[in-house]
Write a structure and sequence with these properties.
Blueprint lengths: L24 E5 L2 H4 L12 H7 L15 H15 L3 E5 L2 H4 L9 H16 L3 E7 L5 H4 L8 H17 L5 E6 L1 H11 L9 H25 L4 E7 L3 E3 L5 H13 L2 H6 L4 H7 L7 H5 L5 E5 L4 E6 L5 E4 L17 H15 L3 E5 L17 H19 L4 E7 L18 E4 L4 E4 L1 H17 L6
Parallel strand pairs: 1-2, 1-11, 2-3, 3-4, 4-5, 5-7, 6-8, 7-10, 10-11
Antiparallel strand pairs: 8-9, 12-13
Helix pairs in contact: 3-5, 7-9, 8-9, 14-15
The structure holds beta-D-fucopyranose (FCB).
The site of beta-D-fucopyranose has 13 residues, from loops.
């Protein structure tokens, strides 16, 4: 059943910048497991998401086996990006394609795939932004404890060394982790994402070990890749109490969601609300190992969170209902552009780093009309409102240097499978035919006009 039209779309406050900052980067993002498919080809080892899918834990029993078949169709996808006019593409590398066992002998066929992708991007004039980890831990490492073991930081550093040595001649933009708070909370806290572990006893060490892995990877990249520009990508969403009695739960949820990674990584300390919980895992010197200088702050943002206390859940807090009059996307994510403006101002001021928005987008059940066109007007409205809020944040002083839409293609939306579509391009999964949606044309026009206005005039 479709939702009634939104009653209220909270406007965002303030005027907008008229000109985009010079060198503003327009891009688009994806991730390995969500698009590549070919999960058993050319020596790739299984990841925790293969296992999760095989256990029928994804909606509709979907798996990533084929996904968007990007492994074989990457050239077509790069050509589409070129049409879109993006300057940069953020993708992730599948650790188990390079190291089928997570460590040990590298897999040349897997390494060669990203050579082909990177070379195709460079030939198309699109800068590759390589993210080392977007949630697809090699299953062999999970079997050894995965992120709950301190050894994971060393495994990640070795994997980073392989990536840096192989691609560092052509890739300069590196992200260590995508949304560490999201994959630790869902995979190790709530337990409804891979690898399906639950409770604070798994969540807290996983957080600390991911932070250690981040610091170790920054050091490796700095040492091996001249002129590397390194960051991490955080999902930061204001966490508001669903009701007056949920204030404490919302504050704790917010500490896990927004602060558990950026604070130690950028400022060298866990937030006060988490200090006690992290104490058993923090050894002497760890915070200095984690807090390594980075060059930029990656921000993913979709909506605010309305949090509630949840005494029966594994963490004591959870997602509450948004107020009835707040607009929502078809997958019930609150639409609140002003929370995006506020978030941009907050992270820019607090971490004093250039901010790149590396994900923002709209998920729904898009379908072609009788003529095969996908008229995703609601996605366009969403993007307009959020990009407008970003312009306001810039006008108010936020140092935002780029915007990457999520996502290039409809893809495997984790536990929701293929039913939820976030792409600017529609993927007909049975045939793998790609059809640009109306939002693709809208975004292409936006990039074109933003870049024209932004282009410095040639000296006469
Ligand atoms: C983010 C993830 C991304 C995608 C979007 C919709 O949390 O980083 O992979 O699933 O949400």
């Amino acid at each position: 059943m479709s939702k009634p039209a939104p009653k209220r779309l909270p406007g965002s406050s303030g005027s907008r910048v008229k000109r985009w900052p010079h060198d503003f980067i327009w891009g688009v993002s994806t991730s390995s497991f969500q698009i590549e498919g070919a999960t058993r080809e050319d020596g790739r080892g299984p990841s925790i998401w293969d296992t999760f899918g095989a256990a029928s834990r994804v909606a509709n029993r979907d798996t990533g086996d084929i996904a968007c078949d990007h492994y074989h169709r990457y050239a077509e996808d790069v050509a589409l990006m070129r049409k879109l006019g993006v300057q940069a593409y953020r993708f992730s590398v599948a650790w188990s394609r390079l190291l089928p066992q997570g460590r040990g002998a590298p897999n040349e066929a897997g390494l060669a795939f990203y050579d082909r992708l990177i070379d195709a991007l460079l030939a198309a004039g699109i800068e590759p932004w390589l993210c080392l980890y977007h949630w697809d831990l090699p299953q062999a490492l999970d079997d050894l404890g995965g992120w709950t073991t301190r050894d994971a930081a060393g495994w990640f550093a070795d994997y980073t060394t392989l990536v840096a040595r192989r691609y560092g001649d052509r890739v300069k933009r590196f992200a260590t982790f995508n949304e560490p708070s999201v994959f630790t909370l869902f995979g190790y806290g709530f337990g409804d994402s891979a690898p399906g572990k639950k409770g604070l006893a798994a969540l807290n060490p996983a957080i600390h070990n991911v932070n250690l892995a981040h610091g170790a990877a920054v050091d490796v990249l700095r040492a091996l890749v001249p002129k590397a520009l390194i960051g991490a990508i955080h999902n930061y969403q204001p966490c508001w109490p669903a009701t007056a009695t949920d204030a404490a739960a919302a504050a704790l949820f917010g500490a896990y969601w927004n602060l558990a990674f950026p604070e130690p990584q950028c400022l060298g300390a866990y937030p006060a609300r988490l200090t006690k919980a992290m104490e058993p895992y923090v050894q002497a010197g760890d915070l200095a190992r984690i807090c390594r200088p980075v060059d930029w702050f990656g921000l993913n943002h979709y909506s605010p969170i309305y949090a509630k206390a949840d005494a029966s859940g594994p963490l004591g807090f959870g997602f509450g209902p948004a107020p009835a009059d707040v607009a929502r996307t078809p997958i019930e994510w609150p639409i609140y552009p002003d929370a995006f403006r506020e978030t941009l101002l907050t992270v820019s001021a607090r971490y004093q780093l250039p901010v790149y928005v590396l994900e923002n987008g709209f998920g729904g059940p898009d379908a072609p009309d009788a003529k095969g066109a996908i008229k995703d007007e609601r996605r366009i409205e969403f993007l307009k409102a959020y990009i407008g809020a970003m312009q306001q944040a810039i006008a108010q002083g936020a140092d935002v240097r780029g915007y990457f839409a999520w996502s290039l293609l409809d893809n495997f939306e984790w536990g929701s499978g293929y039913g939820v579509r976030f792409g600017l391009i529609y993927v007909d999964y049975p045939t793998q035919k790609r059809t640009p949606k109306a939002s693709f044309r809208w975004y292409a026009d936006l990039i074109k006009s933003a870049r024209q206005k932004d282009e410095p005039k040639a000296a006469s």
